[in-house]
Amino acid sequence: xxxxxxxxxxxxxxxxxxxxxxxxxxxxxxxxxxxxxxxxxxxxxxxxxxxxxxxxxxxxxxxxxxxxxxxxxxxxxxxxxxxxxxxxxxxxxxxxxxxxxxxxxxxxxxxxxxxxxxxxxxxxxxxxxxxxxxxxxxxxxxxxxxxxxxxxxxxxxxxxxxxxxxxxxxxxxxxxxxxxxxxxxxxxxxxxxxxxxxxxxxxxxxxxxxxxxxxxxxxxxxxxxxxxxxxxxxxxxxxxxxxxxxx
Amino acid sequence: xxxxxxxxxxxxxxxxxxxxxxxxxxxxxxxxxxxxxxxxxxxxxxxxxxxxxxxxxxxxxxxxxxxxxxxxxxxxxxxxxxxxxxxxxxxxxxxxxxxxxxxxxxxxxxxxxxxxxxxxxxxxxxxxxxxxxxxxxxxxxxxxxxxxxxxxxxxxxxxxxxxxxxxxxxxxxxxxxxxxxxxxxxxxxxxxxxxxxxxxxxxxxxxxxxxxxxxxxxxxxxxxxxxxxxxxxxxxxxxxxxxxxxxxxxxxxxxxxxxxxxxxxxxxxxxxxxxxxxxxxxxxxxxxxxxxxxxxxxxxxxxxxxxxxxxxxxxxxxxxxxxxxxxxxxxxxxxxxxxxxxxxxxxxxxxxxxxxxxxxxxxx
Lengths: 247, 364
Description:
Chain A has eight helices and ten strands. Chain B is mainly alpha-helical. Chain B is 80% helix and 0% strand. Chains A and B meet through strand 6 and helix 2 of A and helix 10, helix 11 and helix 14 of B.
């Protein structure tokens, strides 16, 4: 088993406000890590640090053995942002075009080939939205849109899937199907890091939990997390002034 | 077509999405090829207009080619009962219009969907400041303040302002209203002050209103040449970076994760916008130029099913606005800028009315 993400003593602040402090954890190949914590607890910041979107003020983050900020292999990373279901509201983009974006890091400035289109077709099939391929993203439901974003990540053939509260705004049935899909993908060997508010959903699907409120309150398997008081401690702590929607 | 047929065809298109090209797309691609040919013809005109000034065989051949355009213009005047197409200045104006009609909506498609629509307006105002700086600098150097020279100075000022605005937005907030408002009003203020001050010691043979409201007579051979070169560069850059611009426009954070150099592409986009705005400013004027970047895109977005189609339709609507607008300006002796924008808005209203029917039409 190799280390996908290695976070070592990381601290990050927005100006004077410390978002994450002295956090160390690692994610191994094939892990399904769930990150939980109150609003403004630094989960999104930590995820951004892990995938190299931000650089720590102190400590180090390695991604696939390289410093995360210098990691250039974008095609190895799949990402679904917070409130991604809001995207495409006014922009006319078809589901197929969204999924094709997953191939862009692979082809660069070259033309997309038949192999790329086949991979996209497979990704659409995996998440069961083939029949929506030519529909504008703005005309499909939140759950279907979420599947389109996962299909984009699949089409990128990424080794690591980073998901930031992907089911916000998605109905209960679609959420359940969505998490079953993530379980399938994880069983196929894809490493997943998921930020999720719902502790029941989280503990049902992930195999490792990181409980965060600026500091790391727990990092271990799901059973040890349930048996611990980490959640109560993390939520009991003053959450500070950080807005949850910060980058 | 009946509803039953439309439904049936919807199912068929879903089952064979990659194999079946809808008639609508074929028509769009055909019109796009025609637009491309028209653009190439206009570049050919601008090229022969330039090359005919060369000595020797090159100049002679170019002169012959140039005369063919004017002869075609005489025939057009004969059949249309007009007295405009036989003159080189009108060909230059039409050529400039057709080229900015292609590149304006092309760049505008990305701007509108990045919610940066007002940046075109801002850069047009910086171009106005550029014209004012041009008047002062060219006058102070004792040179003749030709429109072509002023366009060149406006181009430099506008590109520098675009990059400055990009820096400002990255170091303050996203493309918010505040940096836009500051640069827009600031550059206009500088422009008016410079013109007022410059008139005291520099003779200004330029009618500044032509730059404000657009006038086909503004377009000189030099101005048309600048637009031709920049149009080729902009089309090539958009074609080369289509995927990168699309990804960043749709989901900037995911594009960063995929290790796209978002800062570089943003800088490239605002620079191309500055370039297009200065070119289009000659025909449309500072006040109206942003309309060409925004309105055809808004119209296309009403009825397009995907991004590629939005891009195609934006260019087609932009071109239709230019051709009909210039036609209207010639026929009724109206300002070109206002005519083009009024036609564009008419097309936009038409697409708003059509938009409910669009989904059914897309699969026919």
